[in-house]
Structures
1.
Amino acid sequence: HLASLGLAWGQGSDAGWITAEGRVMADLADGDIEAKLDLTGGYHITPAWSAMVQLQTGRGRSGDDYAKLLPSVIYRVNDRLRINAGASHALTGDRGTGLYLAGWLDF
């Protein structure tokens, strides 16, 4: 059984947006606690293109701390679909780097 408590804040404008999202999760069976904080900033370059950077930080269930930096670009295909492409770079731990491609669907 897991218990979770989270809090999110965001502010948008014509120029872009910023958000902060935090969460604490506890395993009620063994008492393990996991926590995370994500900070995101985005900027609208044109009506179709935006740039975004996210800092993901936290502590995993095994007690390992992590921090990742995720810069990306977002292309607005239409009013319902956006494509997000970027990189993920670990600032702590294994320091691995990867690429990602994601779709956002508004409904």
2.
Amino acid sequence: PVARRLLIESEDIVTKSELIDVVARKMEHLTRADVEGAVNTIFKSMAQSLLDEDRIEIRGFGSFVVRRRKARDGRNPKTGEAVAIPERLTPFFTVGKELRERVNGDD
């Protein structure tokens, strides 16, 4: 909760809908529908960038990348039987220095 309050001036933000509400309140000249469209556009753009395996960097916040996990052999925990686990792509987030310091109260 403390980290959430630090991010947007004492507002607890948990869901996308709540994020839209906070931005709409702070940007009084925009309608909620305009803000919702902007937020959805940003998220869709970010998702598409990750699908294209592009890196997303938001200064002061962090970066998103897609990491390729190699195929490997695993084990079924019940039977102990070997199971082939195929290669897969995994989204990965690295927190930025400024955000890490704010969350830790170092600022």
3.
Amino acid sequence: EHDGLLARADGLLQLGRELSDAGKLRLVAVSLDTEWKQVHDFFEGAIPAEIVLESSGLSQRNYDLATLPDTYLLSADGTLQARFGGARDWQTQAARDALLAAAKLAE
């Protein structure tokens, strides 16, 4: 199970890098873990630069986070634009298209 979650996280991070390089969006992956050790262990020591730790609970309250992994598309001012529930393979064309379509709505 861990390998599958890690592969999906890596896929999302890679897609985020591609879209960021193209000037389409900036990906920030928020970990709700309580300490960096948990994140370090999940990524097997190499924490990607896009990961931020948010253990205050503010994100959970502001965006009504109930299940993970979920993916949220926010505007530059933090307004929720789209929510993608559950795990998905972000390397598929369908996932990429869905994210890009939602991002255009956010413009």
4.
Amino acid sequence: FNGAPNSNCNGVSSIGTGNPVVSGGKDDITIYPNPVIDETNVVTVGEILGKTIEIMDLSGHVVMNMRVAKNSHQTVIDLSELTPGLYILNFEMEDGQVISKRIQKI
């Protein structure tokens, strides 16, 4: 227990949506290249299968939302329309948990 609100010993916590957020561990996602020029790849590791990917700017506005192909462990995202800056990628898994990663568009 680290004393942080809304967290437990398994590295799972919740964000404003109420969905658990997972970071690190054997089940994770990899994003490359990052920083991103136009396209980036989201690759799942382990038993993770995704349902949706949401891209938010740092003010919390959703700038992109897409479905992940069923049973796919790799998704290519075209970010060419986004302005350069930092974004949060929220990867919702089929079980409702969310993995959040920071990406930089250059």
